[in-house]
Amino acid sequence: AKAPAKAHAKAPAQGAKLRRKVASSDRAKELKAAGLGLFARLRASPALAAVLGASEASRTEALRAAWRYIKEHKLMCGRTIVPDALLARICSKEPFDCFRLNGKLSQHLS
User: Fold this and answer.
1) Which pLDDT score is estimated for 95?
2) Nearest Cα to Cα of residue 81 among 66, 63, 64, 97
3) What is the reported pLDDT for 25?
4) Kindly report the CA angle at 89 between 109 and 84, in degrees rounded to 5?
C-alpha cells in the first residue's frame, strides 16, 4: 500500500497565511484611521495640486488621482506614460515607464 499523500500538510500553513493576511488588513485599517504611514496627509506641490485638485493628500490618494488623470486623458501607450502639458510639470516631458510614477509623485509630496 502506498503512503498517504501529504495534501493535508499544507492546510496549517494556509491557515497561518490567512491569519497573517487578516492581521495585516487590520493593521492597515488602524494606520488609515490614525492617518499614519502611507495614509499620512502630506502637502502637495502646486504642480501636483493642479492634478489632484487638492493641496494635500496621502500617498495612496495622490497615486490614485494621478492614475485617474492619466486614464481620463488617455496618456498610456502600453506600459509607457506620455505626459501632456499638465503632467509634464510633475514628471519629465519625455515618456516614462508606468512603474516610475510613484517615485515621480513622491518628489512633489512633503
Assistant:
1) 96
2) 97
3) 85
4) 125
Q: Which residues contact 35 (CB under 8 A, 6 or more apart)?
A: 41, 58
* Residue corresponding to grid cell 492634478: 51
Q: Rounded to the nearest 5 degrees, what angle is found at the Cα of 88, between the Cα atoms of 83 and 91?
A: 95
pLDDT digits (tens, 9 = 90+) for 4-30: 555 555 555 678 888 888 888 888 888
d(CA 51, CA 83): 12
Nearest to 66, CA basis, from 40, 101, 35, 96: 101
Q: Are strands 42-43 and 76-77 parallel, antiparallel or unpaired?
A: unpaired
